[in-house]
Amino acid sequence: xxxxxxxxxxxxxSCQRWQSxxxxxxLPPPAESTQKYTWQKPLGQHTNIRxxxxxxxxxVPLLLPxxxxxxxxxxxxxxxxxxxxxxxSTYVKVDIIQRILRDYFRINLVTAMNITDVDDKIIxxxxxSGCNWLDMARAYEAEFRExxxxxxxxxxxxxxxxxANIDNIQRFINELISNEQAYVTKDYSxxxxxxxxxxxxxxxxxDIDSSTEPGEQGTHKRHRSDFALWKAKKFxxxxxxxxxxxxxxxxxxxIECSAIAGMFFGRRLDFHAGGLDLRFPHHENEEAxxxxxxETDQWVNYWMHTGQLHVAGDKDKMSKSLKNTISVSELLKxxxxxxxxxxxxxxxxxxxxxYSDQLMITARQTLQKFRNFQAxxxxxxxxxxxxxxxxxxxxxxxxxHTVNEFDESLRDDFDTARGLSVLMDQMSSISRCINDQxxxxxxxxxxxxxxxxxxxxxxxKVMGDFGLTELKETESxxxxxxxxxxxxxxxxxxxxxxxxxxxxxxxxxxxxxPKNLQLxxxxxxxxxxxxxxxxxxxxHKQGSSWVVATASKDNQSSG
Length: 559
Description:
The chain is α/β, with parallel strands linked by helices. The chain contains 16 helices and 16 strands. Among the domains are: 9-26 and 33-311, 3-Layer(aba) Sandwich (Rossmann fold); 486-559, no CATH class. The protein has helices spanning 9-19, 85-104, 120-129, 133-150, 166-178, 253-265, 279-294, 328-331, 337-345, 357-381, 392-411, 416-435, 449-465, 477-486, 492-511, 517-532; strands at residues 45-53, 58-64, 70-74, 109-115, 158-161, 182-184, 190-192, 227-232, 241-242, 248-251, 269-275, 300-306, 309-311, 353-355, 535-540, 543-548. A five-stranded parallel beta sheet has the order 5-4-3-11-12, with helices on both faces. It has a five-stranded antiparallel beta sheet with strand order 6-7-8-10-9. A two-stranded antiparallel ribbon has the order 1-2. The chain is elongated. GO terms for molecular function: ATP binding; cysteine-tRNA ligase activity; metal ion binding.
């Protein structure tokens, strides 16, 4: 595979330092840390990929205990309302990383997700709406799946509803009760005893002082930080199930993911993903529950937390409770799924993402650069542009440099923004060469078509690995027809006829001496008309070609 290469000396030395710790040993926390717990390096195969670790606040090596099957669990939606861009950014970013691992690094990833269809918010919303809680949950789940499909987010390999896992969840809770890690209250609720969790607070890197403080007055909790595993039934109309410890009730929020992920993957999980806002308390509580049940100090080896999306200028995250949301369907009225994915690629997955029209226009323009490059390259290899003298050795070295630098970018905590920059540098360099109107007529051109096509293939392939769908213009009439149909045009023959007519007019105008400026103005008018319809005309010395531009759905310029 092109992307595999010899490690740089610096990176090799870094890997050696990690290896010197010995398999299964823990890595020391930063000097300023006072945490008792530190991350435990897994015993497994090195990948030369580095991932940010929130406990250590530094990057650590990705090691795979079973490289033939790598487990990944993502917290799924609570289906009580429509998904918004805050949700979408998390799932698109997670999808990008999963695609990189699967399609670029060829890692056999097995992914799972829960669907929270039993929850306080669902019950409250159903009661307010006067509808059945399960019917409402199924309707919003179907909408969520449709939204993810429209954003080209690959579905998980396995997915399960909380309501279908009550027995599994109760078994998990019974284990904790038997091990005295949880306790049953007078109303038959069940709470996790945080005072028994030695490393509680490790993901947040915070000492939980309230773990031994008495619970608030009026509650049945022993300690302030204890959290509910099972909630006793309070109202006749809420969903509930009988429990072996007595009474009826339903699961708490945190136990759902622990039980479902444990059912899928057992006592150890390679990856667990979710938004940064879930790190505490949700992920902290998941980790505490599973460490208690499976009698281990580390349940998840690699936590993947995505930065939150917020509207630019608004410091608060996008949230239904704050009523500052933008739905996925509203986004797609103005921008494409590829444009939103590109916006995610341009930002580090761990950082906050300030959403704005300017961000989306930048994403649109970046996508157009890739389309324009493929169109120029296609025109050059179709001899619509004059062949130039190219330095074969320099081009070969540049291609190798691009492949290596792109590979290093993705190995460095999935730095897609840096990877895109590497690709755009390669495209700019090639475009300058093949579009340069100056040439030495005395030199025989070094065609290097194979190297140019190889560069184009590599760029197109890795962009496909990111999940972008429509970057390359092809000769397929079906492919172009689909794009033109989306713009409201009937067929590509219409565009070809207009370009042919325009080419004749342009040839006549330039053949006259002096040039006929009026005819050239007509050519410009024809080009502008096509541009307004989303067709970008590209003139070359031996003819013209065209590319479907990224026009917005409210007739904004494609950039």
